[in-house]
Amino acid sequence: MKKLLLIVPSLHQGGLEKVCAVTARLMQPYFDVRIAIFDSRNVAYDVKGIPVTDLRLPSRPDKIGKVINVIRRGLKIRRLKKEEKIDIAYSFGPTANLANIASGGRSEKWLGLRSYMDMGNPKQIRLFCRAADRVICCSETICREVQEKYRCRKAVTLQNPFDRKEVKKLSELEQAQLPWDEGRILISMGREDVVKGFWHLLKSFALVHEKLPDTKLMIIGKGEFTPYRELAHKLGIEDAVYFTGLKKNPYPYLKRGSLYVLTSYYEGFPNAMVEAMSMGLPVIATDCMTGPKEILEDQYGLLIPNMSQKEDFDPHNITEEERNLAAQIAALLEDQNKMEHYRNMAIKRAADYTTESYIERICKWAGVKEERWNGSEH
User: pLDDT of 178-201, one tens digit each?
Assistant: First the structure.
């Protein structure tokens, strides 16, 4: 059985961290899997039964510290590769990729590009293309750009896997504790980060709530969200907005939703959006650089033009793009036929991202014999 090492900065919260944990679990029947992590504090994802090596080298803010970290992480991973006789080292995101490269050794190096923001550093992408045995992109758009702009034949697409049965099971484990007993709930999910565009969402929701007073807004994700709470107060919607904080099991909360709204201006492959779709939530999403358009394909949900990247917490300044989003949300909520149509289309599309196809691609690339993954073990 081949030995697979997954390298990730943390397992606290986030898309790439979650995909790493899911990959480890899915690959266990086919590989001897272990994880190397830079910092094991506040692990949120289930990796029980999977060996995890804590390198104890968390991120540092200063440039010299970052360089030293790459070297020290590389040395520790090199030692781990040698001791465990690792065949393939698959890293998730730029910092993990750099450590993977720095570790050297004979193991195959698979480097993962997890967001379009990774493309903002051309020198780094060139390095990845030179050093990698395989550059694994989470979207077709990113893969195409790496292939064409950097002439990288090693680039491949591997879209994230989803298990609808598991999501449904998790959604029924507990009851979501909400501040309201009734109402139609708009949901968005993501950490407190400027790229998520949550100020756009709050301003648009204020217009929706004015027209449809029974509507609520729930934002699920890590962060204090202080400026967003203040904006909600100034907009007069604070009683209709709930910031849940980090939820290890967000699915009971998604289950309570009526509509999922994504306002990011950058994404890689939006896990949370597909999870919401798998639970039958219709979707309205920005047509940002990668992700939503590739998933929705102008038929499985509604796309709106990408929105401004400039943060604006002025409650009196509501832009045309925010008014447009509000109009799209209200129109969809008021049309039950369309809501039902997009519920069905969301479930149909989410079913395309199966764990089986994900397993199959990784096994093929690794040279695992077909009978091991193309039979009863699925």
Answer: 999 999 999 999 999 999 999 999
CA angle at residue 266 from 263 to 268, to 5 degrees? 110
Is 375 a residue whose pLDDT tops 70?
no
* Window from 142-146, 160-164, 256-260, 364-368 with minimum mean pLDDT: 160-164
Print burial letters for 53-78: b (CB count within 10 Å at least 16), e (below 16): bebebeeeeeeeeeeebbeebbebbb
131/185 same-domain check: no
CB 110 within 8 A of CB 89: yes
With both helix axes pointing from N to C terminus, report the angle between 15-27 and 355-366 in degrees, rounded to the nearest 10: 70
For 255-311, write each residue's pLDDT tens digit.
Answer: 999 999 999 998 888 889 999 999 999 999 999 878 899 999 989 999 999 999 999
Under 8 Å between Cβ of 305 and 287? yes
Separation of alpha carbons 346 and 334, rounded Å: 18
Amino acid at 33: V
Tokens in use for 286?
């920005």
Same domain, residue pair 141 and 197: no
Tell me whether strands 3-8 and 88-92 are parallel, antiparallel or unpaired.
parallel
Tokens linked to 302? 């509604």
Residues contacting residue 199 through CB under 8 Å, at least 6 positions apart? 227, 228, 231, 311, 312, 313
Using CA of residue 352, residue 305, residue 268, residue 196, what is the dihedral sign?
negative
- Beta-carbon contacts of 319 under 8 Å, excluding residues fewer than 6 positions away, are 203, 308, 312
**Per-residue pLDDT for 369 more than 90?**
no
Contact of 284 with 325, CB cutoff 8 Å? yes
The answer to pTM > 0.90 is no
Query: What's the domain range around 323?
Result: 165-350
Number of structural domains, the chain?
2
Give the CATH number of the domain where residue 339 resides.
3.40.50.2000
> Which two structure tokens, joined as six digits, stand for 175?
């009851």
